[in-house]
Amino acid sequence: MSASDMFAPPVNRAMKVLDRSFFQRTIPTSAARIFSQKDISRCRLELEKSKDIIGTNRALLIRSDPDQERAGAGGKCVLLRPEVIHNDPTTWSPKLRDLEQDGTVGVIPYQLHLDYNYFSYTEIMNAIITQSETPEQHEVPTGFALAGHVAHVNLRERYLPYKHLIATVLADKNPQVRTVINKVDYVGTENEFRTFQYEVLHGPDDMEVTLKEQDCTFAFDFAKVYWNSRLHTEHERLCGIFKEGEVVCDVMAGIGPFAIPAGKKKCFVYANDLNPESYKYLNVAIRMNKVGDFVRPFNEDGHEFIKTAAVELLRAEHEVAIYPKKKTSRSNPKARSPPRPLKTFVQPKIMSHYVMNLPASAITFLPSFIGLYSSVPGMPSSEIRKLLAPHTEQKLPMIHVHCFSTKSEDDVAETKEICEEISRQLQYEITPDTPELQVWDVRDVAPKKRMFCASFRLPEEVAFREV
């Protein structure tokens, strides 16, 4: 038996209900009995260097001596590799022989017992799930999205007979998981709010979750709103682009994974979502994270919101003063006088960024930018142009639109295709060579499908086109 097989759990392909007691294994090996407790650390270090110690980092290396009468109360031993045979010094390293000969250690037989707690999720699943006909197609389902205490899996059809086993072991091996759910919608179907039907595979049907991302707290009903923890890197990437004092228009804001961190960064944010439940929990996040001075929530259609938010911003007057944190003192009346603000942020008149994180259809919202500033009631285009470069430092907004495409090694074809679709929607040519154009590879979502974020500056000819 190879070393890897020796440390693998026993196999039971017929198991349908998890029996944790089945997963037991006893490995005959050896141990170095340490006669003096002061030598424990030194012996472990030297035996690690000589590669005598057992090759697993999941088992405790220092154990109580199995023969306490002989070793003495509190006696310890160090587990050795199964290849080291206690009564055959030819299997010992020179270092182990030296330690034994000088009386520091004695080499003894040891029965190492492994149970369910030792084995990993993948090892347990490999011992239960029937292997596919071709080994390269056998892949134990390991991926899941975590939202608070809820783990969300998307199981392929061949794994559905094992779904409750998978969920139970997944929860066992991930202490933060209390509930495991599986999506039951047909692949490719989504409602307009990006929520889905699910079945509970393990734990309570409790979808009220609380989680942290980018040092912000979010609390929401996972069954009623869209949340994808796999997008945390994208949330951080875009928020890293925003600068304090800028205005960000989050057209499909959800519960605020872009909007709340941006507000915490002291960006002014117009955050909108069509889903009333998302709007509800967006308000919760604004209160919990104390960003009400910077983040305004809306519950409107995104097509219209692109236009109305731009017009409202032109007319709005809003500033936020940041004061030092200072404790008042009864003995010092001056300390109770209003402090001077450290900094005052005046809300600009022009958006700096539009975020459109609805990859299935966001790109079809781009026509709403046509004529964005050409027909503002009571404000001629010439007046709006004076708010922009070269008259000021303010530029037209960057558009960050998420979308799906195919996948390739270099994304060249996909970038070209995305630019062509943007051009078609805006009726204005955007190419891979357009200044400030970036098509960012966000993540793979399927074997032949990838999510991208196309970022580009809103062209003046589009923003001021007469319509």
Automatic annotation (TrEMBL):
GO biological process per UniProt: mitochondrial tRNA methylation; tRNA N1-guanine methylation
- Asked if the keyword Cell cycle belongs to this entry, the reply reads no
Q: What class of enzyme is it?
A: transferase
Primary subcellular site in the record, as a coarse category: mitochondrion
- InterPro entries hit by this protein: MeTrfase_TRM5/TYW2, SAM-dependent_MTases_sf, TRM5-TYW2-like_MTfase, TRM5/TYW2-like_N, tRNA_Gua_MeTrfase_euk
MF terms (GO), sorted A to Z? tRNA (guanine(37)-N1)-methyltransferase activity
Where the record annotates domain SAM-dependent methyltransferase TRM5/TYW2-type, the positions are: 144-460
EC no. given is 2.1.1.228
Q: Name one GO cellular component term.
A: nucleus
Q: From the Swiss-Prot or TrEMBL record, state where the protein is found.
A: Mitochondrion matrix; Nucleus; Cytoplasm
Q: Which UniProt keywords apply?
A: Cytoplasm, Methyltransferase, Mitochondrion, Nucleus, S-adenosyl-L-methionine, Transferase, tRNA processing
What reactions does this protein catalyze? guanosine(37) in tRNA + S-adenosyl-L-methionine = N(1)-methylguanosine(37) in tRNA + S-adenosyl-L-homocysteine + H(+)
Extract the signal peptide range.
Answer: none
Q: Any keyword Glycoprotein?
A: no
Q: Subunit info?
A: Monomer.
Biological function: Specifically methylates the N1 position of guanosine-37 in various cytoplasmic and mitochondrial tRNAs. Methylation is not dependent on the nature of the nucleoside 5' of the target nucleoside. This is the first step in the biosynthesis of wybutosine (yW), a modified base adjacent to the anticodon of tRNAs and required for accurate decoding.
The record ties this protein, via PANTHER family, to: TRNA (GUANINE(37)-N1)-METHYLTRANSFERASE, TRNA METHYLTRANSFERASE
Output the HAMAP family linked to this UniProt entry. Answer: TRM5
Protein name listed in UniProt = tRNA (guanine(37)-N1)-methyltransferase
| Species of provenance | Lophiotrema nucula
GN (gene name): TRM5
